[in-house]
Write a structure and sequence with these properties.
Distance between the termini: 32 Å
Shape: globular
Helix content: 55-70%
Number of strands: 0
Structural class: mainly alpha
Strand content: under 5%
Number of domains: 1
Oligomer: single chain
Radius of gyration: 14 Å
Largest sheet: none
Number of helices: 6
Length: 101
């Protein structure tokens, strides 16, 4: 259930985006727009681990991506839509898989 995740805990701050130097505030705003959009687009009953993985994927793919600032919001939202449309159930299975000793 997505209501169990506080999206504000996941949002980027300027400190998180130091890679961007003077553009850190803009980069944080862009990344946060993507995170909010993802949160709005997923079903209310999405399993928490799956949503956590999706939020993590946005962070990992975009927090230092040079296209974050250059892309318009529509392009960033299209990327999120594509991720949602192609998300594999197998990704969530990785949460339950324990490596063998």
């Amino acid at each position: 259930m997505k209501s169990l995740i506080d999206i504000h805990v996941v949002l980027a701050t300027q400190d998180d985006m130091q890679f961007w130097d003077e553009e850190a505030e803009d980069a944080a705003d862009r990344l946060n727009e993507m995170l909010h959009y993802l949160y709005q687009q997923v079903d209310e009953d999405i399993p928490v681990p799956r949503l956590e993985l999706m939020l993590q994927k946005v962070w990992e793919n975009w927090h230092q991506d040079p296209h974050l600032i250059d892309s318009d919001v529509t392009e960033l939202f299209d990327w999120v839509d594509h991720m949602l449309a192609t998300w594999e159930d197998d990704d969530s299975d990785n949460l339950n898989h324990q490596p063998e000793p």
